[in-house]
Amino acid sequence: MTLDEIRDEIRKGQYRFSDHAVKRMIKRSILRQDVETVISEGEIIEEYPDDKYSPSCLVFGKTKAGRTLHIQVSLAPVVVVITAYEPDPEEWINGRNRR
Fold it and tell me: Could you give the number of structural domains in the chain?
């Protein structure tokens, strides 16, 4: 599944949030709209073809307010937001590249 296909599913509302993502988003004050913006305007920076339940990827982007976020999304058969967080500057250069 490509980023364009993920975006299409998001636009159609054909996705869901994992329980883990919901808990983390509440704790980190990340809104559904923030997730949708990051996915619609961001880029895939890592792919995890052998992830635990299904292949997934890490999307990097900024919210409308300019907040840098990472969104991990499963690819198939259903798009699921696995988690969302602000990248740690100790681990990421500009939020995009691992140190």
Answer: 1
Cα separation, 92 vs 60, whole angstroms: 11
In single-letter form, the type of residue at position 91 comes to: E
- 33 by Cβ neighbours in 10 Å (0-12 / 13-18 / 19+) ranks as exposed
CA–CA separation, 58 and 38 (whole Å): 11
Domain that holds residue 64: 3-98
pLDDT in tens, 52-71: 888 999 999 999 999 999 99
Report pTM: 0.93
Cα–Cα distance, 20 to 82 (Å, whole number)? 7
Read off the pLDDT of residues 14-35 as tens digits, 9 standing for 90 and up.
999 999 999 999 999 999 999 9
Helix, strand, coil % over all residues of the chain, rounded to 5:
30, 35, 35
The CA-CA-CA angle for residues 58, 39, 87, to 5°, reads 45
In one-letter notation, the amino acid at residue 21 is A
